Amino acid sequence: MNASPLTSVAELSAILGDENLLIVDCRFDLAAPPKGTRDPGRGAREYAEAHIPGAVYADLDRDLSDLSKLGLGRHPLPNATAFSTVLARWGWTPSTHVVVYDDAGGALAAARLWWMLRLVGARDVALLDGGWGAWKKAGLPVETACVPRAATSVSVDFDASEIVYTDELRALRERERVLVLDARAAARFRGEIEPIDPVAGHIPGARNRPLNENLGMDGRFKPAAELRTELLAVIGAPAPDAVVHSCGSGVSACQNLLAFEIAGLHGSRVYAPSWSGWIADPINPVERGS
Predict the structure, then answer these.
(1) Is 254 a catalytic residue?
(2) Do 71 and 188 fall into the same domain?
(3) Does 284 fall in a domain?
């Protein structure tokens, strides 16, 4: 089992072709560019153009979400049965060593898959530090072929205790036993701009840790000790297990959770509906500013 939630391009390159290795490309276009529209097919096209040899593709909308669920944010978690079907298609088993990657520091949507695999009990799963960019920069091989893996029989269940939904978050807030940590950019957190969701602002009392602050200039995660110092400074007195991560739709929040794990700050959870789910119910209060 890989004890670290990260693996390097050198480490992955050394085990390419291992029969027990599953590599998953999670590239995806989530945010709408200025005066433009979201391109949900971009990641799949780029995967088809070039990817790490042997990788399968995970589509955030189709494989890692159930967009038919209402009131649970823009990217609701799929049912365990549906996720079992996806894992079976990829040829996954509980003993499979999984490496996930994207081109956004894990935020779109490799950290989401890393978290989902943890929810079903998988522990031998790591995120490729630096992602697709680091792989290309290292001059390592790529391929265009999409060779299907032999399917397996899979039946998994999500650990519901690791997922926070709105009713629980309301109860925790009432008892002042939670710190919501929002991964969105600072301007979105403050409610100055909102390019995606219909309401701007944040959950009252939340604090902001923009996910890009977890990465160094090279696109890799900062060292564990540096992350630990920074994250403790943000959360202050609350213990890590009182922290609930949020973002726009429950996807990029997983990158902050990953940073906590790298830093040795264990026990935090993800508010799966996140901001888009919170504002789906008009009774939920909204706060703006810092």
Answers:
(1) no
(2) no
(3) no
pLDDT at 30: 81
CA separation for the pair 54, 207 (Å, rounded): 40
Residues 85 and 134 in one domain: yes
Residue 31's pLDDT is what? 67
Same domain, 182 and 95: no
Residue 154 to residue 160: CA distance in whole angstroms: 19
What is the C-alpha separation between 288 and 290, in angstroms, rounded?
7
Domain boundary among 99, 128, 158: 158
Boundary residue ending a domain (91, 126, 158): 158
154 with 36, same domain? yes
Residue with tokens 């799949």: 44
Q: What is the pLDDT of residues 57-66, one digit of tens each?
A: 999 999 999 9
Q: How confident is the model at residue 36 (pLDDT cuts 50, 70, 90)?
A: low
User: For 206, phi and psi rounded to 5 degrees?
Assistant: -70, 155
Contact 14, 88 (CB under 8 A): no
What is the span of the domain harbouring residue 270? 161-278
Based on the fold, state whether residues 13 and 153 are members of the same structural domain: yes
Catalytic residue among 26, 146, 247, 254: 247
pLDDT, tens digit (0-9, with 9 covering 90-100), for 244-280: 999 999 999 999 999 999 999 999 999 999 999 999 9
d(C-alpha 88, C-alpha 105), whole Å = 26
Which pLDDT belongs to residue 2?
46
CA pair distance 254, 269, nearest whole angstrom = 9
Helix (H, G, I), strand (E, B) or coil at 269: strand
